Amino acid sequence: MSGFSSKNLTFVVLIATLVWFSSTQTCYATRSKHWRHSRSAFGSMYKKKGKHHGEGQHQVIVDKSEPKHPLLPLEEPQAPPHEGSRFNVLDYGAKGDGISDDTKAFQAAWEDACKVEASTMIVPLGYKFLVGPTSFSGSHCRKNVHFQLDGTILAPTNPEAWSSGLDQWIEFTKLVGFTIKGKGTLDGRGSVWWTKSILDSIDNEELVRLNNFTKTEDLQALRFVEGANVTVTGITIRNSPQFHLTFDNCDGVLVHNCNISSPSDSPNTDGIHLHKSKNVIIHNTDLACGDDCISIQTGCTNVLVHDVNCGPGHGISIGSLGFDGTTSCVSNITVRDINMHDTMTGVRIKTWQGGAGLVKNVLFSNIQVSEVKSPIMIDQYYCDHSNCKNLTSAVSITNIVYKSIRGTYTVQPVHLACSDNKPCMDLVLSNIQLKPKPKDQQMYKPFCWKAFGKYSILYGFFPFDAVESLLPQSACSTSEGTKFVLAHMFDSSKQSRVYQIGRTLTV
User: Fold this and answer.
1) What domain of life (predicted)?
2) Which pLDDT tens digit goes with each residue over 338-376?
3) What is the pTM of this model?
4) Domain boundaries, the chain
5) Catalytic amino acids?
6) Which of 10, 60, 115, 483 has a CA between 20 and 30 Å from the CA of residue 168?
């Protein structure tokens, strides 16, 4: 090899680099210093033989090894120094009687607090402040501003107060190191929007004018846009017209020890809504609402949710993604140590037909469910209205781990409905223990369609005849030559059939 010159080496390196770049996908995970992945975390978990699944040749190896954790915990950011000036809204003319409009007083206090690094804007205990839709801009703010919420802030119920063009109630934009904390409450008083009874009290001309400014389905209680290192802690958010707490295009989010609630029948009242945000931690928070406790939308990566109580509501969801043919990307999501009760679904991934993109590297671990309709769900045929077209393209779903999911279900334990054109790949179900708890609803067998992966010590507590859906002729039995071994036992203590899915045999 003595004739191998430095020019030859440079050429080889260049070609290798070009090949590497050409192989990358449109959707990829952004890694930061907070996330330390093992290069083999997913690569060693799965073994494939033959060609790509699109050509119908995907071999699944099932063993008893524990699936490796795809993510290591995100490091919580350190709280910024807090030594600045204090700006009390009462000093700016706020009445705090729950009747007078205190919006201008809040805006004036913010304007001054914003100019001082590590300052604190104070909303004091014992007062109720009526504040209209307001955007607190951080474009020219100093870093590490605090919003101390100890009193109660009330949203207006008069539609005229929402004619400012804002689609949220309280918004903070482009802030760095911002913290909202305290023992106070944001009360969205959303019942008038849920019932739409408020529309009966205004004439047609006013209704048209209102609709030109805002849509009732877009009204959010607390929203952060383009923030960096944002913390929300201690506060209560209740009865939002729609989404309670939204993060849009944020980098570095910490939410903990909060309480978010609205009635179970309040429409579209997601608890926490993430969109195009990364490096997010949510923990030790109680969520009860009429929609998803947490919804993770396109553009989100490096999200850790743990020690959260969810219910009632629709569970914790990734999606919906791919609406109207859009490209959606979600990666590096960990949801662990969760208690769910009386929810529509448990942990769910939902995508529209016709979309594109990728969901990958997701771990759902140690989820305790109680009377959840469907604890485990992937739905690549999601549709929230009665007329949806059948389309061939779909958001790809790969490297999804369901580990230690236990408890009771009321309708269906597992529902994996994957796309004919883009099947779900490299799924892992490990230590799943779900028992039926019938209510006044029809119950269904576990369902699988075009879902490929492995079961690792999977225990399912299903009705006796439910096992038929897990037999080899099911789409979930993967490729030819692989058969699941099923053994049924009678558990005298529970007086029910217990089915164990263990190793596979090659036939």
Assistant:
1) Eukaryota
2) 999 999 999 999 999 999 999 999 999 999 999 999 999
3) 0.78
4) 27-61+292-507, 69-288
5) 291, 314
6) 115
